Amino acid sequence: MFETAELGHTVDKAEYKDEIPKLREALLDAQFELGQKKPFPVILIVSGVNGAGKGETANTLNFWMDPRSIHSHAMGEASDEELDRPAMWKFWRRLPPRGTIGIFFGSWYSFPMREHIEGGKGQDYLDAYLDDFIRFERMLAEEGALILKFWLHLSKDNLKKRLKTLESKKETKWHVTKRDWEGVDLYDKMIPVAEHVLRRTSTAHAPWIVVEATDEKYRNLTVGRTLLKAIQGRLKDGGVKPLPLSVPVEALEHGDSRNLLASLDYTLELDKKEYAKQLELYQGRLSKLMRSPKFKDRSLICVFEGNDAAGKGGAIRRITAALDSRSYDIAPIAAPTDEEKVQPYLWRFWRKLPRTGHTTIFDRSWYGRVLVERVEGFCAKSDWLRAYGEINDFEESISRHGAIVCKFWLAITSEEQLARFNEREATGYKRFKLTDEDWRNRDKWDDYVRAVCDMVERTSSELAPWTLVEANSKYYARIKVLKTICERLEAQL
Amino acid sequence: MFETAELGHTVDKAEYKDEIPKLREALLDAQFELGQKKPFPVILIVSGVNGAGKGETANTLNFWMDPRSIHSHAMGEASDEELDRPAMWKFWRRLPPRGTIGIFFGSWYSFPMREHIEGGKGQDYLDAYLDDFIRFERMLAEEGALILKFWLHLSKDNLKKRLKTLESKKETKWHVTKRDWEGVDLYDKMIPVAEHVLRRTSTAHAPWIVVEATDEKYRNLTVGRTLLKAIQGRLKDGGVKPLPLSVPVEALEHGDSRNLLASLDYTLELDKKEYAKQLELYQGRLSKLMRSPKFKDRSLICVFEGNDAAGKGGAIRRITAALDSRSYDIAPIAAPTDEEKVQPYLWRFWRKLPRTGHTTIFDRSWYGRVLVERVEGFCAKSDWLRAYGEINDFEESISRHGAIVCKFWLAITSEEQLARFNEREATGYKRFKLTDEDWRNRDKWDDYVRAVCDMVERTSSELAPWTLVEANSKYYARIKVLKTICERLEAQL
User: Side-chain half-sphere of B473: how many Cα atoms within 13 Å?
Assistant: First the structure.
């Protein structure tokens, strides 16, 4: 695999001097067009042999291009903030918005490769990460990203030569660290691993490009030209089209009207006295659980979805009443902000993940993709169909990191909703709660029923189960929510 | 995940009697159109709780439809033939051709799930299989297959009831085996595993469809209707389009003319006397290696690619001269047969894989996809781009099963090729070897150089390395090939 990168590719000084101004101009033009139209983000990974000039390559690109819309991320040790969240969080927060370029040197590949080469972790360990990365990059690509992964290669001899040359000059001596020489010792062990990783994770939508890095000029020119052609090509063909569907959606619909929502018992209720008693009981339990030392390494994520006027806000307030206000956040999810619109749709949820020991309550959530966006046709069929898998991956990674995920669908009957709408219209201080959109959504009741049932079927799991809450009685619903959270916490802590 | 399938879905007798004739007619129509146009194959997986009626469902579909183009495969114990080859071989050989329907009950999922649930294999073991299956199904989908995966679900209580009912009647008693009752004991252990598997492997192109199987009529009707809608929908939208490319191909081209083929030393040669001596030596070694008891559990797969007139045939004959004629096969790869054309492109190579202890020599190979098909534009860009990964997967699975894979590119210079073409034209008994196509290929020399270099870069690995053979001297080339095979075998046995 690395044979091509040991052929002694070079660029002579004169050619380099001649080419660079042309390449820079073209890159700046492409960058300008990218920034104007914002059709996609560009994600560059610069990996390779230690000492092959990853940092210099990133610096060169930064220098050549407009620094306002290209950003390099040297991923060193994780910060406290980052350690408190799933491993991919630190990459998510640095994803370039559409119209810009992000360069990662030391990417998601670094950690599991190092653990495998130096830390004694086995092949299975590495491969599990690689499969996660393939899914992650596929999601990015399907969200529109242009992904280029460079592997800068040096033969062992050339690596040694390079380190010696750097060491021999006073002004470059500081470049060479102990770690670089350790890299030489590990070289023979590293190469077959790198080969495996590149082979396994080189896909049509996120290919590895091996670049011989012996000659700096060749290396820089090749990376620059590849980047240029990739951006120009994608600008020309107008971005990503939705994937064609291989299974027609209609085929996945259920045949009869029997469904999870219809099977709930909406007459369940609780009288005021019993409610007050149980509220005190469960809020007390919850409060105690949150102060448990065991919760310090965990986090709690609650997701509230439900029919309009089903009482999400009221239920949420009964939870937060039991929490320390420094330890939780409520994330109300409305239309995405400008900043969120230029990122993959899961980005805005990643950024709101709680640190360990903390709680985030999502009032509406990532499930919007398979609910409102599906029903209203805000995204292509193929987009919401792939979302089930992406959401499962997302919840799996947050759960693996210790989050306890509770998801609630607050369900009321159509008649109950109508009564509540009418009441809201009639009551001054509640009128603001009712919008034209609520009435429009009501017209699509059956479409929502189908979307909710599919959602629960495809995303309820042991790790992150859905709880359907019969919410015609607000008292009953609030207690069921509190009780569910307490029981989940008790089981997990 | 299985909540939806415990709602007590039923279909009453009258409705069933009324619906079946209509459904059958529509299914037969769809099947007829599918068979006429042959736009895609249909792959049905029928999995689920033991005792939920997987076999009966398959039987029902067989009974409803035209049995000539629907085939059920109950995957029981592997045959000797199958045990001698990679695990997926038994599925590949049964893949339905385009225009037909294949039903697998007991699919690729069964074995690793059973090993995990009953055999004590861990989560990593299971997940590694699942990731292989995701790639496999994605490849099938991208090759055009319509894939539906049914999971027939029964609650534990209903499972017990069903077994008791069957046992209580003389005519159905034989249905119930000891294994079925073991399934009841394992039920609670199995369900979370099934949930994990379904969640992980339910993709937009190969979704799982959970069907409540308590009521046979509901089960049959749901499976039948889903199948109908899926085929009708796909017939209507005219099959699979090639995937959009997220990275433009031009960006992946190398910038300079330095390449692996240009870097070979074409002056390497061997005189006749030395050739004769070494030929004897290496054929002797090869013959001995093949008779090694250690080879009994392995197999040898040689791949020959190269420029036209580079001497592939001659090199192959020098290998087979050292082999027992009962132990090897030569597979010359020309245009696919009718039977092969209606299958995924790798199918015709899977079918030719040697049993353990045997050898297959491919004279041209699966690399046609990234060579001639790429250069001639016989397939879409996205098709040959994804092929690198698919080929790597393929070679990984055959290597893991014990195959020793040697891949040779026989390289001659353009001048040498011209001389050989001219000689062939002038020599009566060689004239048949030269076709107009050879001359046409020669005009695309540079395109082939690029394709070969990309191929080597993207598919040479420790498991299945490419050997570039300088073949201007036939003697030299033949010895290098023999020597390489001997050394690989010595290292592996």
Answer: 15
pLDDT for residue A244: 61
Contact A215, A202 (CB under 8 A): no
Element (H, E) at B466: strand B466-470
Question: What CA–CA distance (Å, rounded) separates A317 from A262?
Answer: 27
Task: Measure the CA–CA gap between B196 and A463, rounded to whole angstroms.
Answer: 9
For residue B261, give every residue at least 6 positions away whose Cβ sits within 8 Å of its Cβ, in sequence order, or none: B411, B449, B452, B453, B468
DSSP A206: B
Token digits of residue B480: 């290098």
Q: Which of A212, A246, A381 to mutate to test the interface with B (most CBs of B within 10 A)?
A: A246
Does A259 touch chain B if contact means CB atoms closer than 8 Å?
Answer: yes
- Match 């409060």 to its residue by tokens: A287
Section B20-29 average pLDDT? 94
What are the pLDDT digits (tens) for A236-263?
876 566 666 667 777 777 666 778 898 8
- Alpha carbon dihedral B264, B270, B275, B277, in 10-degree steps, equals -110
Quote the minimal CA–CA distance from B276 to chain A in Å: 31
- Please name the residue of chain B whose CA is at the shortest distance from the CA of residue A41: B246
Global ipTM: 0.71
The distance of Cα A459 from the centroid of its chain, to the nearest Å, equals: 17
Question: Looking at the complex, does the CB of residue B253 fall below 8 Å from at least one CB of chain A?
Answer: yes
Of the candidates B11, B246, B386, the beta carbon closest to that of A240 is on: B246
Inter-chain Cβ pairs, chain A and chain B, closer than 8 A: 203
Q: What is the pLDDT of residue B110?
A: 92
Q: Please tell me the least confidently modeled range out of A87-101, B121-135, B243-257.
A: B243-257
Portion of chain B with pLDDT greater than 90, in percent? 61
The answer to whether B98 touches B133, Cβ cutoff 8 Å, is: no
How many C-beta neighbours within 10 Å does residue B123 have?
12
The domains found in chain B, sorted by start residue, are 3-236 (3.40.50.300), 249-492 (3.40.50.300)
Supply B289's token pair: 């290696």
- pLDDT interval class at B1 (50, 70, 90): confident
Chain A interface mutation, best of B199, B228, B390, B392, highest count of A Cβ atoms under 10 Å: B199
Per the listing, tokens 């300079």 go with B256
Q: Which residues lie below 8 Å from residue A107, measured CB to CB, with a gap of 6+?
A: A45, A46, A47, A75, A91, A149
B130 with B71: CB under 8 angstroms?
Answer: no
Q: Distance (Å, rounded) from C-alpha B32 to C-alpha B382?
A: 31
Residues B360 and B353: their CA atoms lie apart, in Å, by: 7
Residue A180: name the closest of A167, A193, A195 by CA: A167
Among B146, B203, B457, whose Cβ lies nearest the Cβ of A4? Answer: B457
Say yes or no: B265 contacts chain A, CB-CB below 8 A: no
- Identify the weakest region by mean pLDDT among B55-59, B227-231, B431-435: B431-435
Q: Cα separation of B309 and B435, whole Å?
A: 11
Q: What's the count of helices (H) and strands (E) in chain B, helices before strands? A: 19, 10
What is the per-residue pLDDT for A81? 84
N- to C-terminal Cα separation, chain A: 48
- CB-CB under 8 Å, B141 with A204: no
Residues of chain B with C-beta less than 8 angstroms from the C-beta of A192: 462
CA B200 remoteness from chain centre: 21
pLDDT at B75: 79
A245 touching B, CB under 8 A?
A: yes
Neighbours of B364 (CB within 10 A): 17
- Exposure b/e, A288-323, CB count within 10 A at least 16 = b: ebbeeeebeebbbbbbbbbbbbbbbeebbebbeebb
Please state which of the ranges A276-290, B144-158, B168-182 shows the lowest mean pLDDT.
B168-182
CA-nearest residue of chain A to B143? A246
Amino acid at A179: R
